[in-house]
């Protein structure tokens, strides 16, 4: 009850930080999709690029988030704005599940269906957009779903470099040793992750080939 009272008393700030959190997660996920899906498509058709691309994405995942923020801070254009730095870091962390699931989805398309498309005279680009991607879309969305949930959690750490978001409450609460303030940031972040997971999961099921 104390947490709810605190959140109601500070509802304007809770809403403001929640919107900042959504901005960080939404923009970084959009960039990750724009980069990750094409990379997944490329490595599904060029096996020689599979290992270097996946290895690079895996290495990024192994770097602790605070360490990655620290590595990026000296970069002139990024270091000037903490939100830019946070968006780049979150984008990098979101790449692995998107690339991997795009690859898995396209490679999982029945080869007989692809050959049938070729037999009908479809070009490679037509095969990609009319056959492979529609059949792989649910698997790709599964990767995006994982990426969003990861980003919601990691975006709380972005407050450590002044990027805003719900992590502001968490770090403030830790400094004050106040559970109410910590939970005022943790609870909305958990709700955002749950809503995103359920929403994208529903879309994934709707678009699954029958």
What does this structure look like?
This protein has 210 residues and is an all-alpha fold. The chain is 82% helix and 0% strand. The chain has ten helices and no strands. The chain has helices at residues 2-9, 11-45, 50-62, 65-72, 76-79, 82-107, 111-119, 124-155, 167-176, 179-206.
Tell me the number of helical segments per DSSP (H or I, 4 or more residues long): 10
Topology order in helix (H) and strand (E) letters: HHHHHHHHHH
Q: List the quaternary state of the chains.
A: single chain
What's the overall geometry? Answer: elongated
Question: How much strand content do the residues show?
Answer: under 5%
Radius of gyration, taken over Cα atoms and rounded to an integer in Å:
20 Å
Cα end-to-end separation: 47 Å
* Helix coverage percent: over 70%
Q: Could you report the average pLDDT, rounded to the nearest whole number?
A: 88
Keywords:
210 residues, mainly alpha
Helices and strands in order:
Layout: H1 2-9, H2 11-45, H3 50-62, H4 65-72, H5 76-79, H6 82-107, H7 111-119, H8 124-155, H9 167-176, H10 179-206
Helix pairs in contact: 1-10, 2-6, 2-8, 2-10, 3-6, 6-8, 7-8, 8-10, 9-10
What's this model, at a glance?
With 210 residues, the protein is mainly α.
């Amino acid at each position: 009850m104390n947490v709810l009272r605190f959140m109601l008393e500070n509802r304007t700030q809770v809403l403001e930080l929640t919107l900042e959190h959504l901005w960080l997660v939404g923009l970084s996920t959009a960039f990750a999709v724009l980069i990750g899906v094409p990379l997944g498509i490329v490595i599904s058709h060029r096996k020689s690029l599979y290992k270097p691309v996946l290895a690079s994405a895996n290495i990024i995942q192994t770097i602790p988030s605070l360490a990655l923020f620290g590595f990026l801070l000296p970069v002139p254009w990024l270091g000037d704005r903490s939100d830019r730095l946070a968006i780049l870091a979150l984008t990098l962390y979101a790449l692995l599940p998107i690339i991997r699931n795009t690859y898995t989805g396209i490679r999982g398309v029945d080869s007989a269906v692809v050959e049938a498309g070729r037999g009908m005279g479809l070009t490679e680009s037509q095969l990609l957009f009319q056959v492979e991607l529609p059949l792989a879309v649910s698997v790709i969305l599964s990767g995006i779903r994982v990426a969003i949930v990861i980003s919601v959690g990691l975006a709380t750490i972005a407050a450590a470099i002044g990027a805003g978001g719900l992590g502001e409450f968490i770090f403030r609460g830790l400094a004050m040793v106040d559970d109410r303030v910590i939970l005022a940031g943790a609870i909305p972040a958990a709700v955002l992750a749950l809503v995103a997971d359920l929403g994208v999961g529903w879309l994934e099921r709707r678009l699954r080939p029958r």
